[in-house]
Write a structure and sequence with these properties.
By secondary structure, this protein is an alpha+beta fold. It contains ten helices and six strands.
Length: 265
């Protein structure tokens, strides 16, 4: 089956909804423990404090409820695999809104409580094929919820990196969906079958033009763990650094993915 003919991966809608609520709950529990000094710490997002980042996590989830309140668009504009490449154009607006929210909501736990309550109520009877007018473009609720796993997992990792010892856990389903979507986005960006990218235990994709592998050990193989892959795909870690630190194994002349990463800004 040629790369262009590959079927789009499907996600279990009920598991995705459960994963979003679970990961949001994990972050909420951790944010409750943060002191004012910890909330003022810088993060790896330029100009963002831990408080900004904690507020942004609620924004990333609240947008589901807000979009369900809006009129339904006439047609979809984005597929799930379009989304990772559509986010960079909105980064400036999102940063401004994040700083405004962090300043306007000093009680973060109350903010998390309102956000969670609104999401649970709105999702109770919302069908997966309902179209949402998202910032990046109209897409189905089912697809948009998968993108929320990326937001939650990536920013959980950002928070853990910013606050020593915070160690927010990752819901397994959320981590799996995030890993798979970003792996599939790589395959969409560089279609082909010469290189196999393995992110055990969640994803294996083939990509990059060249001689197609059919059996046995592929000539070009990249392997890494889920969090390293997510950091590479989102620009938190540079390819050359991950390889130098042995967080990525890359063998074969087409196994250098440095020119294809990051996928998201």
């Amino acid at each position: 089956m040629s790369p262009a003919k590959k079927r789009t991966r499907t996600y279990d809608a009920a598991k995705i909804r459960t994963a979003i609520l679970a990961q949001f709950g994990n972050v909420r529990q951790a944010v409750r423990t943060l002191t004012d000094e910890q909330l003022a710490l810088p993060t790896r997002l330029p100009g963002w404090t831990v408080r900004d980042l904690a507020a942004h996590v609620t924004m990333a989830v609240e947008t589901v409820s807000r979009n369900l309140d809006r009129d339904e668009p006439a047609k979809a504009e984005l597929t799930l695999l379009d989304w990772p490449f559509a986010t960079a154009a909105r980064a400036g607006d999102i940063a401004d809104d994040t700083h405004d929210l962090a300043a306007a909501a000093p009680d973060l736990d109350a903010l998390y409580a309102r956000t969670e309550d609104g999401l649970v109520r709105k999702l109770a009877d919302a069908p997966g094929d309902r179209l949402l007018a998202a910032r990046t473009g109209a897409m189905t609720l089912a697809d948009y919820l998968v993108t929320r796993t990326v937001e939650l997992v990536v920013h959980t990792d950002d928070l853990n990196a910013a606050v020593p010892g915070l160690d927010i856990p990752y819901d397994r389903q959320a981590l799996a969906a995030c890993t798979r979507l970003l792996a599939d986005a790589l395959a969409a960006k560089a279609p082909g079958g010469s290189t196999e990218v393995r992110v055990p235990p969640y994803a294996v994709v083939q990509c990059v033009e060249g001689p197609r592998h059919t059996r046995g050990t592929p000539p070009n193989v990249v392997e890494t763990d889920p969090l390293t892959w997510i950091r590479l795909a989102t620009g938190r870690t540079a390819w050359r650094d991950a390889v130098a630190e042995a967080r990525v194994s890359a063998s074969g002349e087409r196994a250098d993915l440095g020119g294809l990463l990051p996928l998201m800004g």
